[in-house]
Fold MGF factor.
Amino acid sequence: AAVPAGTLALLGTLLWAPWWVLDGAPLGELSGDQDFQLFLHKNLEFARKIKGDVAALQRVVCDTFQLCKEEELLLVRQDLGIPQAPLEQCHRRTFQAESCFSQIRDGLRTYHDSLAAVLELLPEHTGLVETLQLDAANLSSNIQQQMEDLGLATVTYPTEGPGPLPAFSSRFHHQVGGFFILANFQRFLETAYRALRHLACL
């Protein structure tokens, strides 16, 4: 079933606002499409699982390489060119459902590819990294399928800057790169999760 135009307009009104404003948003307007709500709740749980797996890998990087605090590594980060997948379409005034879901989908694909660097870094944790890659791919596919089911247009954003995997000049740079890939992925997931959660609560 297609999402009514009025519903999409309401999504735009809500999602550009600061997240604390959404806590007081009126409820009920988005509850009409049960398939959409089922999709949101199902993938909230999926996103929560992925966040937990990313956090587990961040603890491994901290324990293994003593890379734990982002502020101590910012100077090194400038040399690495680790991209942050954008999600500004999910909370800007010009919000459109197609654009937000497309950015979540594309970002998940980017991080799926970037995790190859983490896999090289932590061969003894191959199972966890590969599970994370599979989950990211599956969530991306879920969103693509839901967009098609809802009749939302697929939007593809051009890739900005370098590819997801820069060439690391040293083992240390590779370690720091893995740290920031995971840190960026966790931030991306937090934003995507908040977008899904507030839609599901309406």
Notes: The helical segments are 5-15, 19-22, 34-65, 74-80, 97-121, 126-149, 171-200. The CA atoms of residues 139 and 202 lie 22 Å apart. The two ends are 18 Å apart (CA to CA). The chain has seven helices and no strands.
